[in-house]
Design goal:
By secondary structure, the protein is mainly α. It has helices at 6-21, 35-43, 48-55, 62-68, 76-85, 91-99, 103-106, 111-116, 122-154. It is built from 9 helices and no strands.
Length: 160
C-alpha cells in the first residue's frame, strides 16, 4: 500500500457491505463481479459490465491484467487499474485481493477460518474485505495520531 486514504477504507467497507447484503452480484469468473471487480465498481465510475468488457479486450484474469498493466497502453482495463492505484493501492494489493492473500490481513484471521478461506466464496471475500478495512483503519488512525504528535513537537506546543 502506497498510502492509506480514508476514501479507500470507505470503499472497501462499502464493497463488503454490498456483497454481504446481496446488493452486488458476485461471480468469481466475471471480471466485473469478482473480488477486484467489485472493489473497482466502488473506486471508479465504471459498471460491472463495463469493467468486464474492458478486461476482455486483453486475455487473462485479474492477475494477468495486473502483470500486463501499463498506464499508457490505451487499454481501458489499464485505466480502471490506474484509477484504483490512485486511491493508494498497489498492484500487489490488487493481486492479494483477488487471491485473498495479503499477509497483514491473513495474520488477523483466526487459523481455522484462514485454513478454509476460499477466494471464490462470497462470504469469505466479505470476511476478508471487512478484516482488511479494519487493518487499514487502525493503521490510518495510528498514522493520524503520530502526525498530530509530530506537529505538536515541531511547534513546541505544550501538551497537558
Amino acid at each position: 500500500m502506497r498510502s492509506i486514504q480514508p476514501e479507500l477504507i470507505g470503499a472497501i467497507e462499502r464493497t463488503a457491505k454490498k456483497l454481504k447484503d446481496g446488493g452486488s452480484s458476485y461471480q468469481w469468473g466475471h471480471m466485473g463481479a469478482c473480488n477486484c471487480g467489485n472493489l473497482a465498481q466502488e473506486l471508479t465510475p465504471f459498471s460491472k459490465a463495463e469493467i468486464h468488457r474492458y478486461a476482455m479486450e486483453r486475455s487473462g484474469d485479474w492477475n494477468d491484467q495486473i502483470l500486463e498493466f501499463c498506464p499508457t497502453s490505451g487499454y481501458p482495463i489499464d485505466l480502471v487499474i490506474q484509477r484504483m492505484l490512485d486511491f493508494g493501492l498497489t498492484l500487489d494489493d490488487l493481486g492479494h485481493l483477488e487471491r485473498l492473500s495479503a499477509p497483514e490481513v491473513l495474520e488477523r484471521i483466526p487459523f481455522e477460518r484462514k485454513q478454509s478461506l476460499s477466494q471464490n466464496k462470497r462470504e469469505d471475500v466479505v470476511f476478508y474485505l471487512e478484516t482488511w478495512a479494519r487493518v487499514l483503519r487502525e493503521k490510518w488512525e495510528k498514522q493520524q495520531s503520530s502526525e498530530i504528535l509530530e506537529r505538536v513537537e515541531k511547534n513546541s506546543i505544550p501538551v497537558y
